[in-house]
Amino acid sequence: MNRIRKGDHVIVTAGKDKGKKGDVLSIDGDKVVVSNINIIKRHTKPNPQAGQPGGVIEREAPIHVSNVMLFNPASGKGERIGFKKLEDGRKLRVFRSSGEAVDA
């Protein structure tokens, strides 16, 4: 079970976008793509068969999962994640500082 999942609201802890917040768009191994974070300019050739225009396209690039923390709206900060096992055998993500559940 991953500590960071698609759709989580995270805060960046290192790099040029340190302190910015965004939602996780995708996860691929140990890399995450966060909305409006690590924007790069990609110079692309037009491809008329795919209907793709050419030019300079701005998009999000992946960053390492160790450079993001799950954002806790109660404290207003990024916090570490732990796991708690329930009686029925399911694992639940919890914030380590307060012990409150991340998922409802």
Automatic annotation (TrEMBL):
Domain KOW residue range list: 3-30
GO biological process, any: translation
Keywords: Ribonucleoprotein, Ribosomal protein, RNA-binding, rRNA-binding
The keyword rRNA-binding is assigned to this record: yes
Gene3D superfamilies assigned: 2.30.30.30
InterPro entries: KOW (IPR005824), Rib_uL2_dom2 (IPR014722), Ribosomal_uL24 (IPR003256), Ribosomal_uL24_C (IPR057264), Ribosomal_uL24_KOW (IPR041988), Translation_prot_SH3-like_sf (IPR008991)
A GO CC term attached to the entry: ribonucleoprotein complex
SMART domains xrefs: KOW
One annotated GO molecular function: structural constituent of ribosome
Pfam families assigned to the protein according to its UniProt record, in alphabetical order: KOW, ribosomal_L24
Subunit structure: Part of the 50S ribosomal subunit.
NCBIfam families (alphabetical): rplX_bact
The protein's role, per its UniProt record: One of two assembly initiator proteins, it binds directly to the 5'-end of the 23S rRNA, where it nucleates assembly of the 50S subunit.
HAMAP family from the UniProt entry: Ribosomal_uL24_B
Similarity comment: Belongs to the universal ribosomal protein uL24 family.
Protein name: Large ribosomal subunit protein uL24
Natural source organism: Marilutibacter penaei
